[in-house]
Amino acid sequence: MPRPRRTPTPVIRITHWIGALSMLAMIGSGWQIYNASPILPFSFPSWMTLGGWLAGGIAWHFAAMWTLMGAGCVYLAHGVVSGHFRRDLRPQGARAIGRDMGLALRFRLSHAPGRYNAVQRLLYTGVLIVAALTVASGLSIWKPVQLGWLTWLFGGYDIARRIHFTMMALIVGFLIVHVVLALLVPSTLFGMVFGRRPAPQDPETVR
Amino acid sequence: MKRPQLDRTAIAPELRRLERRLMLRGMVSLGGLSLLSGCALDDEPAVERALARVMSLTDRAQALLFSRHRLAREFDASRITRPFPFNAYYGQDDVRTVDPAQWRLEVSGLVADRRPWSLAQFRALPQKRQITRHICVEGWSAIGCWSGVPLSVFLNRVGADLRAKYVDFHCFDDYSTSIDMATALHPQTVMVLDFDDRGLPAAYGAPMKVRIPTKLGYKNPKYLAAISVTNRFPGGYWEDQGYDWFGGS
């Protein structure tokens, strides 16, 4: 069934970039906070952290929390209402993932505008779930009394803290892959910035 | 529902702004800002102001989330962290002590009876015991067993104005902090006399600390010397340097 080609809508683009900046601020300030009492035998170098000291890191962390939550809520509502999640991000079967993963590893995966391949779907759905878990586990260690049920769901304060850290690590891993792939296929980056592809005319996507 | 707000008196908001500015100056002056911005944001007062405004927004959100009836989880005695960590803004060698017989708690501000209190007077009041998790703003936590007089019992006994906004604590180790009245009246907010069912040791705040399991560690003052009920925003040792004032858990 032929459909008009889709590129990221303005809502997706704006929330993507607000979310991206917020996430970078969350990570940098989170590393600052981590350094105050590391749970692993290492600290983050201070040039990689945001805020200057613990209180500054906390100030940045909560400032970025508001912008991330704002952008995230708009994005999630838009994704559900517009059908973006159902249409574009819903992961496909294992076979499609295997096929596209093979193509991607051989740098042969095509990127038709407005069409998300199985690897993208898997990665984006995965990182959305991880981001949601990061926010939830973060809230649970910020408010272990007022949101005690959430802390309990995460296995208590100490485990929730480790889950929060692990989710951060997964997001950083995703970011590295995501940025590398976006640079390898710059038209996707162009689309996320300007909402259209750089080429004069891309072939119509038919599915 | 009572929750802390900016003072409506003429001077207090100005004072608070000033405090925030002073403390934020330190926090944005170092480190990784240039990583994100590529330019020196450290001298940018707009960034300081924005962070300060967001912090008071976050504090208001914390006050809204706070419920006087929601209790911090209490643990089994087997979960108590041993040894319980010492923590202060100085090392353990610099702990100050007082003669418990000579110690008096100064009472001031919006209270009917401002006479100082002795330890014996506190011992005569009803006691409450809790095994709760102390959570430091740094991230570490430890479970301890504290008992003493609920702050609400004391505030009622001295005829405090319970509609006042703040309860301010000053300590003889020159520490200070302050809390909102809603938290002061929370059933688990306790003026601690005993740790682990024995008299409070010097390292943990003898002769009296205030245990507030609904707040982070820096809102739990040790070595208490004076208590005051006030509508004037009191700040605190760490809060004046940039930690958020509400500090709720």
Explained architecture:
The complex is a heterodimer of chains A (207) and B (249). Chain A has 207 residues and is mainly α. Chain A has two domains: 1-89; 107-196. In chain A, 68% of the residues lie in helices and 0% in strands. Chain A is built from eight helices and no strands. In chain A, helix 5 packs antiparallel against helix 7. The longest helix of chain A is centred in the N-terminal third of the chain and has 28 residues, at 54-81. The N and C termini of chain A lie close together (6 Å). With 249 residues, chain B is of the alpha+beta class. Helices cover 23% and strands 20% of the residues of chain B. Chain B is built from six helices and nine strands, in the order αααβαββαββαββββ. In chain B, the strands form two sheets. In chain B, strands 2, 3, 6, 7 and 8 form a five-stranded antiparallel sheet that branches.
Strand content of chain A: under 5%
Determine the mean pLDDT of chain B. 88
Q: What is the share of helical residues of chain A?
A: 55-70%
Topology-level CATH name of the largest domain in chain B: Sulfite Oxidase, Chain A, domain 2
Q: From the coordinates shown, what is the CATH architecture of the largest domain in chain B?
A: Alpha-Beta Complex
* Main β sheet profile of chain A: none
Most extensive interface: pair and counts?
A: A-B, 39 and 42 residues
Organism (chain A): Gluconacetobacter sacchari
InterPro entries (chain A): Cyt_b561_bac/Ni-Hgenase, Di-haem_cyt_TM, Hydrogenase_cytochrome
GO molecular function, one term (chain A): heme binding
Keywords (chain A): Cell membrane, Membrane, Transmembrane, Transmembrane helix
Could you give a short description of this structure?
The complex is a heterodimer of chains A (207) and B (249). By secondary structure, chain A is mainly alpha-helical.
